[in-house]
Amino acid sequence: MTVIITGGAGFIGCNFILEWVREIGEKIVNLDKLTYAGNPENLAGQDPDVYELIQGDIGDAELVKDLLNKHQPWAILNLAAESHVDRSIYSPADFMRTNVMGTFNLLEATRAYFGSLSGKGKEKFRFLHVSTDEVYGSLAPNDPPFTEETPYSPNSPYSASKAASDHLVRAYFKTYDLPVLTTNCSNNYGPRQFPEKLIPLMILNGASGAELPVYGDGLQARDWIFVMDHVRAIREVLFKGTPGETYNVGGHEERTNMEVVLAVCAILDELTPRLDGQSRTVQIKHVKDRPGHDRRYAIDDRKIQMSLGFSPQWSFTEGLKMTVDWYLSNTIWVEKVKSGAYRQWLDLHYGQKDK
Fold it and tell me: Can you give the pTM of this predicted structure?
């Protein structure tokens, strides 16, 4: 019994694999291109009988076909994606290649493989596509949260590319009867997240005494979910979800970006006080807002709660404290990640804006 996951060396993927190996123990094969955010060290030391890493692109049709034929998986989990809005603004072509054409190629290979199955193997097979709440667009302050029926209205090249991939997945269910499942999740945070994202960026900059750059007025609101809760949700959808259905996954923790930054500052002030005694809030610096910045996301996750019995276990306060502890305790990991692409990204996206 084997599962194939794409993008498993990234933030959500590696946490899923670690949990899968601990709790399920079935063989899991990870196909990952190992771009800047794919870190194989996140999964170092795993039992080779249970975990295997294949470096490759989901856009490589022959490679994907060979992997499916060789491993005969009962499930494919598609987490491979370019995933940061700022990067999509400056380099949208990468997002189209991976998120749209890569997903298309994976679906085509899966359709051929699914057609070769029969009996219980065909009945059990699932293709799970992990997406984002950003496909729904932006909410006004008093708008109700996104449901699975909310019309798509993406506002960035990233969210547009994910919306396109979601539509492809749905089309393969309707046209080819491919047993697909889709999850649309709110903002994730937790250990092993590449430090381009808000929370790890604030933790590392805050701890080092660097500026804490906040876009615009910092009042953009997001629903936050601890990554281990998201991992559990993916597993529940895989085992219990109904083919063709979409499930929204949320953390019930809506916060503005400024509230998140202040919470990180408070934890850092408690764990590692500044030598001058000041709060790390003095390091906050507002920078020019990014183009097309969505104002608010919020998730209505009653469907996954009522149909699959899933609800998040970790509060934002608990999860954030665990996350800060992890980054402060894993300095070697941090130093390796902060070299190269991380510095270039930081200079590009915040240095130029500041100027």
Answer: 0.93
* H or E stretch at 248: strand 246-249
CATH topology classification for 2-191+224-253+297-314: Rossmann fold (3.40.50)
Q: Give me the pLDDT at residue 348, please.
A: 67
| Residue 208: other Cβ atoms inside 10 A | 10
In Å, how far are 73, 175, 323, 336, 340 from 330, measured between CA atoms?
34, 47, 11, 10, 18
Which is nearest to 239 in space by CA: 170, 308, 177, 182?
Answer: 308
Pairing of strands 180-185, 246-249: parallel
Selection from 336, 344, 210, 353 nearest residue 284 by Cα: 210
For the chain, how many residues are written? Answer: 355
Residue ranges for the chain with pLDDT beneath 50: 342, 352-355
Residue 271 pLDDT: 97
Question: Contact 64/105 with Cβ under 8 angstroms?
Answer: yes
Output phi, psi for 353, to 5 deg: -65, -40
DSSP characters for 28-97? EEEEE---TT--GGGGTT--TTTEEEEE--TT-HHHHHHHHHHH--SEEEE------HHHHHH-HHHHII
CA–CA distance from 191 to each of 330, 332, 333 (Å)?
10, 14, 11
For residue 300, give the nearest of 241, 226, 242, 249 by alpha carbon.
Answer: 249
How much is the CA Rg of the chain, to the nearest whole Å?
20
The residues annotated with a catalytic role in the active site are: 133-134, 158
Taking Cα atoms as reference points, which of 3, 237, 218 lies closest to residue 110?
3
- Ordered by start, the domain boundaries in the chain are 2-191+224-253+297-314
The b-or-e profile of 58-74 (16+ CB within 10 A means b, else e) is: bbbeebbbebbeebebb
Q: Which of 54, 176, 56 is nearest to 107 (CA)?
A: 176
CA–CA gap between residue 230 and residue 238 (Å, rounded)? 12
